[in-house]
Specification:
The protein is an all-alpha fold. The chain has two domains: about 1-195, Growth Hormone, Chain: A, CATH 1.20.1250; about 195-400, MFS general substrate transporter like domains (Growth Hormone, Chain: A), CATH 1.20.1250. About 75% of the residues lie in helices and about 0% in strands. The chain contains 15 helices and no strands. The protein has helices at about 10-25, 35-45, 45-65, 75-95, 100-115, 115-130, 135-165, 165-185, 200-210, 215-240, 250-255, 260-275, 280-300, 305-330, 335-390. Helix 2 (about 35-45) crosses helix 3 and helix 7 packs across helix 14 (about 305-330). The longest helix is centred in the C-terminal third of the chain and has 56 residues, at about 335-390. The protein is globular and about 55 Å long. It starts with 11 loop residues before the first helix and ends in a 21-residue tail after the last helix. Residues about 1-10 have low confidence and may be disordered.
């Protein structure tokens, strides 16, 4: 386990290191998005196959959430995270020299698989933080993760314009390789870790989901919130490229900078969580999320409303996410990686459903149909929260505290 004096190492510098590491790890998922036209031309691939580059990264990430993140509860994370990032660096280098689209798809899938290093670092940061600062630390680390997602597209677009898409992956590989070495040197050590069979470890994720009402509720709220997030961002380019805006791809890409609001909200939301305000902040954020859909509806013809709706909606979505993580990490300190696995799998599935249904909605009814869809997801989250408050399910602990998790043998 983490030695008692390890908590003192969670200095502002260490928090910043965790935040940067999460941002760099998460960015690996998003480099390809603005590069697809260049990749298609260079590798003589159709748009359909080229789009699989992005899809493969997401599939790899989903697999990593389910199969790799739980290892954070039994392996020494100072060793585990650098090894995962080392594999990511090799995969990124392989992507940079890919001779055809198939090799590139496989390489990016492996890089996506290893991007879950961020989801091991978040509960690690929560474990190192004291109870009084956990919300602030998790919020700051999540700000780094969100900024990594935000800046990845800008970074790859600029590099590709100057030196080509392959250089993007070379630079990314070097950055990840340096980060791997830095984390190996700087992360606090864990002298002992529990020994649990891998099968039991994965099974206990299911057990946690079944026995912890708070985890189930917060996972559902997270999934519905992320579905709303993807509804907005998946359809935004279609709105902006047509009337009345007729914006270029460069201007459309700059709208991603509005996501910085969500990154800033993560840190502030974490501070509120430290004050025990998780429930009112969640409820208020869900109300704001639903209300943002009205602004986005007006944004079909009014730029100010569109910008305001994006910023306000993103603030609310990220605030809900931070409150969710603060609560689930408090359930069982020895199982934080598994708790994060259960939560993030549902969160990821919700986002995938949001993306998939958005294309259908826009194709059948345009922007108004997208607004209805987003209001449906965000409204469902609000109704679920209200029901949980009325029934008390949202703050009842489950059976995990009574020793139902797999028994750990002598630590090693």
């Amino acid at each position: 386990m983490i030695p008692p004096d390890a908590r003192s190492t969670m200095t502002p510098g260490m928090v910043a290191l965790f935040a940067v590491a999460c941002g760099v790890s998460a960015a690996n998922l998003y480099y390809a998005q603005p590069l697809l036209p260049q990749i298609a031309r260079d590798l003589h691939a159709g748009s359909g196959r080229t789009a699989l580059v992005v899809t493969s990264a997401q599939i790899g990430y989903g697999i990593g959430l389910a199969l790799i993140v739980p290892l954070g509860d039994i392996l020494i994370r100072r060793r585990l995270v650098p090894v995962i990032l080392l594999v990511a660096a090799v995969a990124l280098l392989a992507a940079s020299v890919a001779p055809d689209i198939t090799v590139l798809i496989v390489a990016v899938a492996v890089a996506g698989l290893c991007s879950v290093a961020a989801q091991i670092l978040v509960p690690f940061a929560a474990s190192l933080a004291s109870d009084r600062q956990r919300g602030r630390v998790v919020g700051t680390v999540m700000s780094g993760l969100l900024l990594g997602i935000l800046l990845a597209r800008t970074f790859s677009g600029l590099i590709a314009q100057v030196a080509g898409w392959r250089t993007v992956y070379v630079v990314a590989a070097v950055v990840v390789l340096v980060l791997s070495g830095l984390l190996h040197l700087r992360l606090p050590d864990e002298h002992t870790r529990p020994r649990i069979l891998y099968g039991e470890l994965l099974g206990s994720v299911v057990l946690l989901m079944r026995t912890e009402p708070v985890l189930r509720l917060r996972s559902a709220l997270g999934g519905l919130s992320f579905a709303t997030f993807n509804v907005i961002w998946t359809s935004l380019a279609f709105l902006l490229i047509g009337p009345p805006y007729h914006y270029s791809e460069a201007v459309i890409g700059s709208f991603g900078l509005l996501g910085a609001a969500g990154a800033l909200a993560a840190s502030f939301s974490g501070r509120l969580a430290d004050r025990g305000l998780e429930r009112p902040v969640t409820g208020g954020s869900l109300v704001v999320m639903v209300g943002s859909m009205a602004l986005l509806a007006a944004g079909a013809h009014q730029l100010w409303a569109l910008v305001a709706g994006i910023v306000v909606g993103d603030l609310a979505i990220q605030a809900v996410h931070i409150q969710n993580q603060q609560l689930i990490f408090a359930l069982e300190p020895s199982a934080r990686s598994r708790l994060n696995t259960g939560y993030m799998v549902i969160y990821f599935v919700g986002g995938a459903i949001g993306s998939a249904t958005t294309g259908l909605a826009y194709g059948t009814g345009g922007w108004p149909a997208v607004i209805v869809l987003g209001a449906g997801y965000s409204g469902a989250a609000l109704v679920l929260w209200i029901v949980s408050e009325v029934t008390g399910i949202g703050h009842r602990r489950g059976a995990v505290t009574t020793g139902t998790l797999p028994h750990a043998s002598a630590p090693g």
